[in-house]
Amino acid sequence: MAPWFSLRWFTPGQWQQFHFDHPLALYAIPAVLLLFGLRYLLHRGAGQRLSLSFSPRTSPRRDLLDSVLNRLRYLLPLSAFMAVALILVALARPQIIREQKENQSEGIDIMLAMDVSSSMTEKDLKPDRLTAAKRVAQTFIADRQNDRIGLVIFAGEAFSLCPLTTDNALVKQYLNQVNHHIIRTSGTAIGDALARCINRMRESHAKSKVVILLSDGDNTAGSLDPITAARLAKAFDIKVYTIVIGRPPKGAASATQTTDEGILKTIASISEGSFYRAGDVGKLQRIFAEINRLEKAPVRTQVYQDVQDYYRVYLYWALAFLLLALLLKNTIFGNILED
């Protein structure tokens, strides 16, 4: 910072940075100015004055010098006013406050289980089911800054691709690498995928544990029954949201008659989660938005303030003006007839 005697302390830019702890003291400055003005008006005609002149001879140059000397007499009341005004500024306590906010959240553990079987290349969702699911999932992940997120992929087998982590960029990087060729075994192992998610979360102490399972088919592979996996999830207080991706097969009288909904509805029901069907990208986005809204952990915001006081600067200036006033009082600029 600048030294106290710098004129920078009186610039508008500097004053805009200040927060005044007692701003009412500043309102007294116009009152002091008014008192000085009243004193001048009341004593202007009645006061005794001494005129300053260096020579009885008159000349334009001499008259100008005498006029300047007489006007310099106003330095004394001006210095006194500045001293009082700066004392009031110091009493207002000018401060510069720097705030730092820190958001704290208990967070939620979320495992994303994504079907990567060959049927996910169907194009009823643009550009295809898997790409649409990846894009919407990435947007969802970007909004979960305080949560741990992991990734499981499955087709005929299930693999844990990314463990629970708060590094959202890492999760999104793994998600970008997902494609329908990554698992060669055909089928849809929903039970095994759910078991992989449970295994990642069983020792978690998070307040809320969630699995989001996306698939477009019935359970046709794997060694673990999905109903058993759902009961395990319930035992570990894990809530499962199941999402069927794709439009109902042609020839089905209604969406409820498709073979891929029954098991996913049962899993959601057992684990006290919810079941959804995403027939288009817009619906899939709304589903993730709803899950995002339902699974929110309270965030506590702590504000740290670094407060620096600068009243001493203006006290030093006030003392300087006060000393100047006392000095002027004992020179030719003081009116000894009014003392």
Q: Which structural class best describes the helix and strand composition? A: alpha/beta
Strand elements, count: 9
What is the CATH superfamily of the largest domain? von Willebrand factor, type A domain
Ends: how far apart?
42 Å
Oligomer: single chain
Helical region count?
11
Pfam family, one: VWA
Domain VWFA: 109-291
Keywords: Cell membrane, Membrane, Transmembrane, Transmembrane helix
Protein name: VWA domain-containing protein
What keyword list fits this structure?
339 residues, alpha/beta, Rossmann fold, 2 domains, six-stranded mixed sheet, 9 strands, 20% strand
Question: How would you describe this structure to a colleague?
Answer:
The structure is a single chain. The protein folds into two domains: 7-99 and 305-338, no CATH class; 107-297, Rossmann fold. Helix 5 (129-142) links the parallel strand 3 (108-115) and strand 4 (148-154). It is α/β, with parallel strands linked by helices and 339 residues long. Helix 5 runs parallel beside helix 10 (281-294). The chain has eleven helices and nine strands. It is rod-shaped, with a radius of gyration of 39 Å. It comes from Nibrella viscosa. This is VWA domain-containing protein. Residues 109-291 form the VWFA domain.
